[in-house]
Amino acid sequence: MAATHSSPQFESKSERLEHPHVATLNAMVKQWREGPGSPVVPWFDPDDAGAAARVLILMESPAPATAEMGAAAFCSLDNDDRSNRTMRSIMAEVGLARSACVKWNVVPSVLPTRAPTFADIDAARPMLIAVLAQLPALEVVVAVGRPALHGLTRAVWAGELPGLYRLVSTPHPSQRTALAAIAAADRLHSTLTRVAEHIATAEG
C-alpha cells in the first residue's frame, strides 16, 4: 500500500499507511482506488487520530494542490494550502490536538476546480457513511463549509448516520474576499474553541 511524495514529511506518512489506527481506513481507500477509472481518493493521515478520533473535521473536497499529488495524495492538515494552514493555526491556538482528530472530505475524490454539487455529495455519501462506521470513539463532527454540512444533513434525513454525534458547522476558511475570509476565520476559531473545550471537559 505504498505511496510516495517528494517531501520527507509525506514520505514518512506513506511508510505508515498500515499503522493500526489508520489501517482499516486506508484499506477502504485502497479499495475505492482499485479498478480502471476509479477515483483518486487521498489516504488518511497517520499523523491524525485515525479510527481513535473523537473529532471528525469534515471539509469539502481535495484542494488542487492535493490533486496534483495523484496517487500519493493525503487528506492531511499538513497539505500546503491556505485552508489547511488556517486550520492548523487555529487548532494550535485553541488547544485542539490532532491526536483527537481525523480529517476527511465530504466528497473525498478529486473534482475539477469547482465546489461539490448535490450530485457529487450524494454519490460520495456511501463513502462518508463507511468512514463514520469506522470511528467508534467519535463525539463531534465539524462540518467546514456548506457542502460538508449538506452531506451530513442529507445523511441525517436518510437515517444513514451510524452513530450519535454533536454536529457543528462553520464556514470554509477559503473565501473569495478578504473580509469574508476574516469572518470565516473568526467563526472557525469560535467553533474549534467550543470543540476543544468539549474534549477537555470530557477528558476531565
UniProtKB/TrEMBL annotation:
Any Pfam family: UDG
Stored Gene3D superfamilies: Uracil-DNA glycosylase-like domain
Matching InterPro entries: Uracil-DNA_glycosylase-like, Uracil-DNA_glycosylase-like_sf
Top-level taxon in the UniProt lineage: Bacteria
Domain Uracil-DNA glycosylase-like: 51-177
Bilayer-spanning residue ranges: none
Protein name: Uracil-DNA glycosylase
